[in-house]
Amino acid sequence: MTNLAQDTSPATAGKRILIGGYYGFENFGDELIAQVIIDHLRQYGAEPVLLSAEPQKTARQYGVEAVGRTDVKAIWHTMKHCHGFIIGGGGLFQDKTGPLSPVYYGGLMMMATVARRPIAFFAQGVGPLKRLLSQWILGFVINRANLIVVRDRASQEYLKTCTKKGVYLMADPGWLVGNLIPKTTDLTVPPKGIGVSLRPWPDLTSKAIGQVAETLMQIPGVQDHGVNLIDCHAGTDMAALARLEAHLKRLKVPYRWFHSHQVIEGILASELVVAMRFHALLVAAALSRPVVGLAYDPKVRYLMGQINGLCFEPDQWETLAQTVADDHNVQDWLKPDTLKGIIDLKRAAQQGFEQLDQWLNKL
After folding, report:
1. Topology at the third CATH level for domain 16-169
2. Which of 101, 137, 234, 312 is the most buried (most CB within 10 A)?
């Protein structure tokens, strides 16, 4: 495992760092970010403490201390007895899903401020923030942060209008997923099968899922090696994947399920990944798997643009099958500019952690 921390400072060893984010909900993307941050802090000699919706499960899964994310008394006690607070990563300050997220995460930052604990606003994507209250909360608490690192340029530009402090840019921590692969993993085994990640979405009609199934049938060897159904968010994605499963049964295509705690395993087992989920695409690219993005959200388009990868808009899904039929040697899809984009993004993610190291050294 590559050590991102260049200099493990004795002053940092044993320091307790509280981490707040959307953790404990069995969402692969958020749990991946938690794992990367925890791994880095451990290499730096610090002791991570995670706020979680399922603290007991989180404690078992990562071998860390965990605190219930709504247990105000326990959070306050932990905040007072930690040395610093990391808020992030992920898209925490947004009100697209409702008004409470900025209130909750802003409240955590205010709690850290009252407890006089240094704050790292880390690896976050900001927005959308449509409500004036949400904008005011972020504008107020961002100036309490000692370190501000965001994962996209739009967030950086927005925060520059809220604060005179430095706003640093990094790539998503998930690009460093390779650090989480155990050294004992045999990466020489050729991957077989096609990985598929779908999620609920109004335009994910039966016709659209049929087009995905038709696409899979165009890939040589799929009848022999099958399809890997990758469930990135427990309790959310399974229904969409089950609809694809019905098509696979009808077409007599073998398949395997990989659930939210097995996503990396499922991606490593796939020679190609076709996905709607942002972090399924990101991790597949980081692990040198060819990817096809099924655009349903601007962040998927943005990611695929960064690596010059194949990306299909909803009204283009019917061309998926023909595209694969015309050029089914999927390894050829890892073009030189794609590989360069991936290398650049891994470097940008590491640079974000170098900023975090400087913050840790000051605790």
Report:
1. Rossmann fold (3.40.50)
2. 137
pLDDT (tens digit per residue) in 97-153? 889 999 999 999 999 999 999 999 999 999 999 999 999 999 999 999 999 999 999
- What's the pLDDT tens digit per position in 45-57? 999 999 999 999 9
Angle between helical axes of 206-217 and 238-250 (0-180°, round to 10): 50
What residues does CATH 3.40.50.720 cover in the chain? 16-169
CA distance 228 to 26: 19
Which residues pair with residue 310 across a beta bridge? 292
Please tell me whether residue 83 adopts helix, strand or coil conformation.
coil
Taking the domain 194-342, which CATH number applies? 3.40.50.2000
At residue 288, φ and ψ (nearest 5 deg) are 65, 35
The strand ranges marked E within the chain are: 16-20, 47-52, 65-68, 84-87, 119-124, 147-150, 168-169, 194-197, 227-230, 255-258, 272-275, 291-294, 310-312
